[in-house]
């Protein structure tokens, strides 16, 4: 949502002759949030300061199931959502109204908040009757809490709407009371597609202080009035694994705004080992069915933790099995991350492909977990991100190039309020031998604001003798200076195929050069990484050699673009190990750039690389979790084609007395954690 302008008001009361009596302070912001039911899609359409906002957000359950509600945790949680480029958080009715610190960080990071009251169809009259007149048990206490909550939160500019409940409306007396208490001030009550301007309104404005809120709409339930089918029927979901291309199909979801759609959420293997006993480390049994589908049979501990299988027999073939039957927990979790990335990128790209033509928004079920559950999540309860986090981050970037997986047409998404001009798209296909059999530049284009434009087909699968498994790199770049605006990397198979050829590809040894610089302030570490695929460069006419990617960071983040001309050359040494360790621990000074080399002689894509930060220990025990969490990465689970380089920023806090080390893993670099800094 961009930089947020916030202001501080301080009020002090002095009593004459006695001095200061009381004081109060509040951060606030100026903005106008509107919404109406869009006539074209039937979905609720939100506007901020007059600009339509395509909602791509997530469902929030609770920060912590034991109510350990710390400001530090809230900051991390909310920043993670902003890092994923989401623009709305729905505080689900089965949870609670969070502490003010949560809403403060939503204000700071520019996330709209959908706030529900404490009615949920899961436990209170789901289905028929429409609502349970006997619940909650104390209606007066419920309304007292509701009014106090409104007073507590109403000054937060991030708060966008009030909703009576999840998949349910409150009982009639509570619903009526909420509607009355949350009625709009006349200035706001005429918000519709054809609303009058302030100057044209003949309504006599009333004193705003007479209203409990007066500025935000109240919707009686999450399935009413522009959400799902708008009538309260259970038309949200689904909540299981999907074929990635299905998200793009016209018949996938029939309504304009889906408040809940979810999928898988397997964390990394280290989290399983850290949160479960050894009997919980057993991966599912892959049971082959007569119809050719595979049924996953998880262990009882995973079932208790709400594991969602990566197959749906009869509809979706096992997406992990597409890469080959996993051998152990590490193999299973790595392949699950491949699926997580594809699944959630496809979900958001599919919805965005139909922006305004069919949809006005979507909220993913769910983004986080208040406990060590395994159901849909982008980061686990220990605050380690899954690859789905970065698939989401990629898909939801404000300006984005993507492949429609149903049609194989390339699309450019511009959600900004200004035209995107003088840009072009480069599409290059890379095979498992490191060759580039397909290359095309889609000439200079201009893209209108708030639009999705299809620019042409990626027709490599229709070429003569296409490879069964291949990589596709899309780059949207500024023609004047080759600056990359959006970069999107896919691994694909031909129709009806699988990814099993990627298994022998793990033996490839792709050389890397990793340049880093560390900034330390107290316990805070910020590391600038530049990672380069050093295998043989392709034909110079391929623009990949010219327009290396620099991750876009938020305000105050480091710009890695300057590193390209300031690298300090370091003598390259060969040794028997995979990495040359040039730094065994972080220096307490910013003592220049450091270089680590990955030895290798193969040419190809350095596939699915991911960094992690660990505590350096000499007495490490098997199964011990050495991760330092949370860590903020500008990108992770990334891939580099031959000759390509990418900059990544990493930031984290180090516990007292701990020395951190930065490690790298990847599809081609899986034999242990390789220390690079």
Explain this structure.
By secondary structure, the chain is α+β, with helices and mostly antiparallel strands. It has four domains: 34-263 and 342-395, TIM Barrel (Alpha-Beta Barrel), CATH 3.20.20.80; 274-336, no CATH class; 399-505, Immunoglobulins (Immunoglobulin-like, Sandwich); 512-675, Immunoglobulins (Immunoglobulin-like, Sandwich), CATH 2.60.40. 15% of the residues lie in helices and 29% in strands. It contains ten helices and 31 strands. The strands form eight sheets. A seven-stranded parallel sheet has the order 10-9-8-7-6-14-11. Strands 22, 23, 24, 25, 27 and 29 form a six-stranded mixed sheet that branches. A hairpin with a 5-residue loop joins strand 15 (399-403) and strand 16. Residues 593-668 form the Exo-beta-D-glucosaminidase Ig-fold domain. It holds the Pfam family Ig_GlcNase. GO terms for molecular function: hydrolase activity, hydrolyzing O-glycosyl compounds.
CATH class of the largest domain: Alpha Beta
Low-confidence stretches: 549-587
Number of strands: 31
Q: Structural class of the helices, strands and pairings?
A: alpha+beta
> Given the structure, what is the number of helices?
10
CATH architecture annotation name of the largest domain: Alpha-Beta Barrel
- Please indicate the count of domains: 4
**CATH homology superfamily of the largest domain:** Glycosidases
Helix content: 10-25%
Strand order of the largest sheet: 10-9-8-7-6-14-11
CATH domain fold name of the largest domain: TIM Barrel
Radius of gyration: 26 Å
